[in-house]
Amino acid sequence: AQTVTQSQPEMSVQEAETVTLSCTYDTSENNYYLFWYKQPPSRQMILVIRQEAYKQQNATENRFSVNFQKAAKSFSLKISDSQLGDTAMYFCAFVPPSGYSTLTFGKGTMLLVSP
Amino acid sequence: SQTIHQWPATLVQPVGSPLSLECTVEGTSNPNLYWYRQAAGRGLQLLFYSVGIGQISSEVPQNLSASRPQDRQFILSSKKLLLSDSGFYLCAWSVGVTPFSYNEQFFGPGTRLTVL
Q: How far is CA B67 from CA B63, B72, B75, in A?
């Protein structure tokens, strides 16, 4: 079974600074997908970024980028130039590429961006 | 464009009462549909998924059941609610031949259920 661990329950950062959220996972699969989802106070889950394990290049979406270390089974999210609107719960998630397997989420990291 | 609706937005129910939460998707056909529960301070737990009308797969044994009477309608039910059923329930959809392949899951706004 796959597990996803987010070791930082809460983090704080000031506006315009950079912050990195950690995520590790455990799987015996060789190919899979990793995601970061954002859940703001409105509770609407929004996909931030995704990474395919067979791609060595780290995914980037505007101010959001990941550091994917497959051997270490690590998938961290870096938010550059943090904005107040980035305040949210961030979830790391894992899914194998085929079959009807479970989409596994971590417990989340609450990020607070302050002025 | 596709949209996903959930209702009600909030619900307070006594222990032992029945439950029916509804999720509908617009703007797509034959979506894969999912029900998740988010308990306080915890991540999302997949409860059910469906790849077609009448096809339901359960991920965890529990007091809840799901049904898909129409292509874009997904219902979460219970005959008798327990205190432990309290939480935030999210419905999601995706496209794809298999539920968890290459495609993003899009989430609804959620229903906050409190069982007293």
A: 14, 11, 5
Token pair 């809840």 is found at B64
Residue of B nearest to A106 (CA): B43
Nearest to A98 among B44, B101, B105 (CB): B101
Which of B:11-50 have CB within 8 Å of A? 34, 41-46, 49
Q: Distance between CA A18 and CA A67 in Å, rounded? A: 14
pLDDT digit string (tens) for B4-50? Answer: 999 999 999 999 999 999 999 999 988 989 999 998 767 788 899 99
Q: What are A76's two structure tokens?
A: 């961290």
Q: CA–CA distance from A28 to each of A24, A73, B50, B71, B73 (Å)? A: 14, 11, 26, 34, 35
Q: Which helix (H) or strand (E) holds A94?
A: strand A88-95
Residues B72-88 pLDDT 10s: 999 999 999 999 999 99
Strands B87-94 and B106-107: antiparallel
